[in-house]
Amino acid sequence: MQATAHILVVDDEASIRTIARAYLEQAGFQVTCVEHGAEALRLALSDPPDLILLDLNLPGMDGTEVTARIREHSDVFIMMLTARSDESDRVAGLRLGADDYLTKPFSPRELVARVEAILRRRRGAPQRDAALRFRSVTLDPEARTASANGQALELSPTEFDLLHAFVRHPNRALSREQLIELVWGSDFYGTDRVVDVYVGQVRRKLEAATGSILIATVRGVGYRFTDERLP
Fold first, then answer.
1. Are residues 221 and 177 in the same domain?
2. How many domains does the chain have?
3. Where is the OmpR/PhoB-type domain (predicted)?
4. Helix crossing, 63-71 with 37-46: angle to 10°?
5. pTM strictly above 0.70
6. In a domain, 1, yes or no
7. Nearest CA among 126, 140, 139, 120 for reference residue 185
8. Whether residue 87 is found in the same domain as residue 14
9. Helix (H) or strand (E) holding 77
10. What does the pLDDT look like over 135-168, one tens digit per residue?
């Protein structure tokens, strides 16, 4: 039987914590609520949840700092909550390693649906594929590890899934819609802007390790992984 997923809700607004707890618990999740970033960081590292619902605009240690500090140690799923309308804030959070975002005010039912969609990516059947080896990149789906030029890549869960999608389809132009289907699934609620942010993140990490641009932009189509497959 599937263990109950644990959700850590981090928000300084009591009403948001109350609503999130009520709907998530009704959906069958175990929920812990805190209002400060420092407490969220302590709990995330000492008793890791399955997903963190994290307000970006926290007093003191804000959500971007919490995300960055967590990503130094953990690949736990992070969904940002933000009342900010400026896209640059959301992009900054995604670049630090958040997996999704939801803008306030939000529908509690949509919140539950998006949490379930993220967690389904981890609860799916474990990968049994053999390691995929290229001239520069090696990816092991079962161990969920990746390296470039022999250097381990530090990837968030979504970044790993995106790189896996690319290496499964080398030298093939993949549209944003195809990448959403391969990585986020058909019940994805976000926009294709999220795809662009994550492609940029993975491309920069590969370039830092190899000195080469291994994910090319295909104008009018999407993106293509161009490393040479080894026999």
1. yes
2. 2
3. 129-227
4. 20
5. yes
6. no
7. 120
8. yes
9. strand 77-82
10. 999 999 988 999 999 999 998 888 999 999 999 9
Determine, yes or no, domain membership for 230: no
Q: Which domain holds residue 21?
A: 6-123
β partners of residue 223: 174, 217
Q: Could you tell me which residues are beta bridge partners of residue 52?
A: 8, 78
Q: Is residue 155 within 8 Å of residue 202, measured between CB atoms?
A: yes
Structure tokens of 162? 């995106």
Q: Which two tokens stand for residue 48?
A: 């890791």
Q: Position 167: which residue type?
A: V
The two structure tokens encoding residue 91 = 């992009």
* Predicted confidence (pLDDT) per residue in 6-26, tens digit: 999 999 999 999 999 999 999
Residue whose structure tokens are 């949490």: 115
> Minimal CA–CA distance to 10: which of 30, 1, 44?
44
CATH number of residue 138's parent domain: 1.10.10.10
